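Structure ticket #2291
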Amino acid sequence: MISDATNEEEAARERRLREQTDNGEIISAEEYKRRSRRSFLAFAGLGIGGFVGFNRIQNNESRDDDTIPAVLRAGLEWNEGVWERVQRDGAKARTFSVSDREEIRVNGRHGLRATRNATAEADLIQVSPEEAETWEISMTGTDGVALDPIPLASIKSDFEVHDMVWEHKCVEGWANIVHWTGVRVSDVLEAYAPEQLDAEWGVMRTPAETDGGRQEREYSAAIDRYTLRHSQSLFAWRLNDEDLTNGHGAPIRLVTPLKYGIKQIKRVGVIDFTNDRPTDYWTQRGYDLHAGL
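Resolution: structure written out below.
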């Protein structure tokens, strides 16, 4: 038979445990129900407020030629401004040893496809070695006047060649350390378009894709002046000591450790310089125009 003293001792122990777990407060069943109702109503209110706020953002009017609500675009532009202010002359991204390089997959075939749903190397527009020898990058100045084109042969022969190894980063969250061979974009522009070096932007484009003989829209990437003039921004024609494949942007592409991969446009065929805020392929689809690291 359990004594009264034992019962009192167990009761005291239970009170101590409750005080420890309930922060010293023991409440009645009625008070517990009241607080539960209040918590439920508070969370319900937050949920409804979040839904209404999201709906208002989704229905917020977009700017001309944009696909996302103006309030979200304003947020992206604020973020761009922060990154532009922290850019420092002479600052460089970390580089690695050639022995650290890795294979990198083909990710993104925009501007390269011979068919709308191209998924393999054979489905891409092929640039033969003969075509590569005569490849040129056409340019338009900030005044809209066409400039002399840049021959690929000149890019390969007339400028100092640089081998750089850095981490290529994708907006999807993956990254690879890769080895690029090419020449500085700034060196090429200094020789072929010196008056455009102060342009705010250079919009690079691929030749237009085709789809069963029908010409499609070209792929584009807007590159800011800081990146164009940076010593680690290259026009590259080799990746990991091999000539670029069509999937990686043969015969010439832009590479830079300052931007995510969506800005490192493959198969550069055109550069349009502008001082006006431009748009490009991914910006029209809701991405940050800066897309920097």
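Closing remark: The first helix runs from residue 4 to 21.
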